[in-house]
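Can't paste images in this forum, so I'm doing it all in text. The chain is below; anyone willing to post the predicted structure tokens underneath?
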Amino acid sequence: MLGEARGSEVRMLVVDDHPIVRHGIEQLIDQLDGYQVAAQAGTAPEALELASDDDFDLAVIDVSLQGLSGLELVKQIRERGVEMPILMMSMHDESFYAERALRAGAQGYVMKQRATTEIVSAIDKVMGGELYLSDELSAKLLRRAVEGTNDPEKGGVGQLSDRELEVLQLLGQGVPTREVADRLNLSVKTIESYRANIKRKLDLKNASELMRFAVDWVRTSGDVTEE
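Text version of the structure:
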């Protein structure tokens, strides 16, 4: 049962750049015996400082944050030797982002649309040392492993690195290149290099094709809701 593994309340860190979302998650957690939201953060730097300086038992982190992404935040938390379980939440399609979250160092992934029905099971599993994915995605990954088939997402956008995907997402949301650079704390030259890599990997001929692709991809993947 939730909270029984410890003699005291399980302390959680919630990271999301939308205050109303953080409040909603806190309300969900308040319904669980033995758990409390001990701290909240709206940015990756704030979350990194909290995770490094405090002793949390679990973190819930959104994939999309202003500046450093949730995926990059998880990587940096792990690089600092912080071992607490991490559950990622997002509006993004789990079939595309969940594996990236696990590779970054998270123990689970929940889509926000399902949070009210799945968060209890997700927290229970990651606190018990297990990985959490939806039943549908778990079955898909198992079937792929048994059949020895490749991930169909690895063609197209699946080829992109986490950072390239982040740039593509922001471009598709209409964020200008210079602002993309500011948000990610990178130089404009570096963003231009990422743009060139994205065009090459996706076989896009020019900037216009890149923008059309980015806008269409954001619209179909649901990323537009994260802006």
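The chain has two domains: 10-143, 155-226. Confidence is low (pLDDT under 50) at residues 3-7.
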